[in-house]
Write a structure and sequence with these properties.
Elements lengths: L4 H9 L3 E3 H6 L4 H9 L3 E5 L2 E4 L6 H8 L4 E2 L1 H8 L9 E6 L14 E6 L1 H4 L3 E6 L2 E6 L1 H10 L6 H13 L5 H10 L3 H7 L5
Parallel strand pairs: 5-6
Antiparallel strand pairs: 1-3, 2-3, 4-5, 7-8
Length: about 200
Amino acid sequence: MVINGLVKKEFLNRGGILKTAELKELGLSSRQIKRLIDDGVITKIKRGFYELTDNIISDEVIVARLFPQAVIFLESALYHYGYTDRIPLAWQIAVNKYSKTTQYNIDYPLIEPFYHEPKFLDIGVDKIIIDGVEIKIYNRDRTICDVLRYEKKLEKEVFNNAVVRYKEDSRKNIRKLFEYAEIFNIKNKVQTYIGMWL
């Protein structure tokens, strides 16, 4: 069975991943979906999510399509901003602490969820577009607050690099940094680590 152009185009329009419901909206039956899997045209990523087998998708896009409410967090955000040279072993994402934990058990890409109070989840979120897919990521200033909050979880070198590179970054926003520091109750820490550079 040759995948028709419409379905292939739809995969590409949505960052290379479609849900079962989206495939059915395109007119495919469960039997046709199974046939596409058997023929090696599409691959099941996790229950209810599929990708084109011969299409390489970036990990960020997979994470964003599988978990649209998640936010790229901590070391993964540091890597995106160039505040660390170390590629994280897993995609660190901030998620709602009341979300179902089993949904994050996937083989690929490796993810490490951090469970947050819902009221803190949307603070400092930026949106970037990769391959036509919107990806949520914490901005530079929120990310540095997270670095200070999770200092004990980070290796010393990663922590120090992040602080030094942030202070050198012309795109930082000190007003926002202190705004977030107030919310997370880490003003003293921000003053200690960042304040001396201002």
